[in-house]
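Recap from last week: sequence in, structure out.
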Amino acid sequence: MSNALWWVVCCQPLVVWAVVSLLPTFDDWTYLTSPQTAPFSFSLLLPWDTYWRPFDGLTGYLVGQDIRLFPLLNHLLVLSAHLINTVLVYLISRRLKFDNAATNIAVLFFYFSPGMLGTVLDIDSINQASTLMWGLALVYVSLLQLRHRRLLMAICLFVAILCKENGLTFIIISPMLTYAFGKRNKRDISLDFVWLATVGILYLALRFCLPQDNVEIGSVYFEGGVAQKLRNIGMFLGFSWVPVDFVSLLHPPSRNLLLVVLTLALGIPFLAMLWTRQRRHLLSKPFIGLMLCALVAASMHLATIFTVMHTYAGLPFIALSVAYLFQQSSSRSSLQWAFLMWLASVLVTDVHHTLKAYDSGMTGKRMAEQVLEQTKAPCGRVQILVVDDNYPKYSMFCVIPYQAFGWGAAVRYATGYEWPQEIDERLLADEDTTLVRGMAQEAFGKGYDGVWVICHDKVKVLTPETTK
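Predicted structure tokens:
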């Protein structure tokens, strides 16, 4: 086992301690993996909205049985999948005949790269981590000499797709990688592809045979045109390759040019040295194959919506491509020192992003506490009036306060999901604050028994008496 993998395993207690302290924000409050407190329904396991992700519905049901499991169970599932994915990157590296030093590079690059942060720190990203886990398991099995190899590949593929739809990309990725490294003859690779494609077709047939009552394809997935797709590709390349503290670069209220310069200065030399010294290998079949695998892995997101979380899909193949280039180097001493600098850079970025995600979660918690302090009796129906102050957002690390508040879901969580049962939200422009009293009176007239006014991270609870 590589020394790097041992270090990754040994640092798990610290990583677990840091990550399980993060509280829900934004999508975490509303997605299927949030507590589903209603009695069990098979609808949780059926296609819903644009997805069919039964494992997410099952997770939501489990944490709904005991609210104390949320978000602890979610975090542990994501972290476990990330650790297993790291082990699979190690195993695949060894099957590709990378030496110990190159394998160490692959393991550390994948585990610590900022490209993993959007998934590993996100409570609702169980599907993203687990679909990659089963996809990498498929790739590893495809490289082995086993009697029932294709059956195991089919099982891995089907479970990967049930975790998240982009598991379908491994129909192409697995044969592509074995071809790029010459691990199978063309006949075997063709048969592997046909076998996997058949599994994919059977999945699609099954999905569309199931009830589609709750399925709705949102237009947001297809908006933006060519400009949006080019932006997606730029984000994918940037978050995959550029070692910089993106919080300090992209979030104006958190901007810190010193950290931007520091992380770039520490991180860029390794990649620059790698690319320039091994430029003749940039057109080699293995390197191009790995880059295409990364692109295919992220392709569904690139064609629709791409966020920081989606970088994770292609990250193993980026890590393997870095290891491949390192493997070709005859002079490694300076590269190894430069890699240690890269590692220092990404650790700074990882810590800063974790702290920001923690702050966002605590913002939602504090806002819920403000509501509870001002509320004398439980409210069944609540209207939230949000004064939009145009506060910028950066993924799930720097979240707009009312989104960290979960549009009121943080109060449900704080009350053990006992109340409120119904929450309605209205967004106001800053200049409309003078209308708040009238809008509150209108809400009470419609039967709402609570009105919460949100100005940035402050919540004021209005009652019928206070609006007279």
